[in-house]
Amino acid sequence: MKRMGMIFRAKANKALDRAEDPRETLDYSYQKQLELLQKVRRGVADVATSRKRLELQLNQLQQQSTKLEDQGRKALALGREDLAREALSRRAALQQQVTDLETQHATLQGEEEKLTLAAQRLQAKVDAFRTKKETIKATYTAAQAQTRIGEAFTGISEEMGDVGLAIQRAEDKTQQLQARAGAIDELLASGALDDPTGTAKDDIAAELDRLSGGTDVELELQRMKAELAGGTSQAIGSGGGSPQQAIEGGTGQGQQTQQPQDTPRFDKQ
Predict the structure, then answer these.
(1) What is the pTM of this model?
(2) CB contact burial 119-140 (16+ within 10 A = b; e otherwise)
(3) N or C: which end of the chain has fewer CB within 10 A?
(4) Would you kindly state where each structural domain of the chain is located, as residue ranges?
């Protein structure tokens, strides 16, 4: 169970690490610091309000104390010592309350000063954190952009990887189509495939073209033989040879010997 829990925490931590954006984390931390600073400021305001309330109470008590002192002096002037004593007693009780309130006032004033100083220090820290936060965010954004550019140049990014695969598939399909087109052309030329449009040559047409090329060579050869035979006949006539030899040697007297021509053979493939 401990191992499963450790594996789960490790995988969860890895997933959170991939999903975490440092810029968002910094912004969240800055927001929390602002909230804390706001609470400190509210605390300073509350203490200042309490201090002000004590000051108002002190003023009221001092006014009552002054009033009782005047009443006691008037009673004593009128010969009412008992009233004067009562007024002075009440004034003494008020003075005790004034003393207690003054002690509380001094305490609140000290707390207010401490909170005010703490708020100022916290404000300075928040301002410094904000500057550092923006610097880190700018540096992170620049590093992220530089990394993406580097990955794009090297082709290891996901987007460029998909582009590279698409190009490779396109090249493979192009080569496959070129190979197929070449094979079809070879099969049409050899006669293994028929062209329904009639543009490709069949076996008979190919054989006729081959024989036509050979016939031109044979005709040229027969012409050369005739020229040679004619030259030999003239040589015999001038040398006194026998007529039989002249007839056998050449065409003589304008006669032209016809040579048999090879009959074209149509080989069916």
Answers:
(1) 0.48
(2) beebeeebeeeeeebeeebeee
(3) N
(4) 2-156, 202-269
